[in-house]
């Protein structure tokens, strides 16, 4: 039922853990792990192996700091926020461990609001190569903290997993890829801030929309079935642009 749960703290020892055999199910309302004062905290949500977190339609899960999943995370028509106030402690943002599971269905929205620092040691997302990531639909957003003030340039590592939609909305800040090819099934939208692929390959099956800034684009490849578009209000300085569609009739349109 609708309602809310506030687990408020400023001490990393007061984290929230879902143990093996346990389940946190949100069917409406909001669960906040951390602070609602606007000051970044260090509250983590850990889902142990055999544990489950399920955020169903209308549900909201906000985590001040580190979302560490060794079990199962499922979202459908819901919102999950990680590093909500933009910074947090010395760890990753959203970590899917080896053998863990993460699924997004419907209009699910994962909001990555920050990172500890702009370094390879503390990526805003790290999805292990042996994790089971099924982003069937929905959108992953890289954003700034709420409220602003603890924002960071950030990096992310998804180890060849597919996003469905990816939106970069970090005014005044930069998002950099760390080490692995980024794959987007539908739309990649650079809405605000700077997207810095750092020479790492990006594969897009749908549309590339640039309304902000792209630097050091590396190789951008349009893949898969169906048409794609390159559009937006800003010019993209492609370093290497490849078309590798499944059929000669799967065109890439400019400015549409």
What does this structure look like?
The protein has 256 residues and is mostly beta strands. 0% of the residues lie in helices and 48% in strands. The strands form 3 sheets. The protein has an 18-stranded parallel beta sheet that branches. The chain is globular.
- Broad shape: globular
Determine the mean pLDDT.
89
Helix content: under 10%
Oligomer: single chain
User: In sequence order, what are the helices and strands, one letter per element?
Assistant: EEEEEEEEEEEEEEEEEEEEEEEEEEEE
Report the total helices.
0
Measured between the Cα atoms of the first and last residue, the distance is 43 Å
- Proportion in β-strands: over 45%
Structural class of the helix and strand makeup? mainly beta
Rg is 18 Å
Largest sheet: 18 strands, parallel
**Unreliable parts:** 9-13
**Overall number of strands:** 28
Give the key terms.
mainly beta
Topology:
Layout: E1 4-7, E2 16-18, E3 23-26, E4 29-33, E5 45-47, E6 52-55, E7 59-63, E8 67-69, E9 72-76, E10 79-82, E11 94-96, E12 101-105, E13 109-112, E14 125-127, E15 132-135, E16 139-143, E17 154-157, E18 162-163, E19 165-177, E20 182-184, E21 187-196, E22 202-204, E23 207-210, E24 213-214, E25 219-224, E26 228-231, E27 240-245, E28 252-254
Parallel strand pairs: 1-4, 2-5, 3-6, 4-7, 5-8, 6-9, 7-10, 8-11, 9-12, 10-13, 11-14, 12-15, 13-16, 14-17, 16-19, 17-19, 18-20, 19-21, 20-22, 21-23, 21-24, 22-25, 23-26, 25-27, 26-28
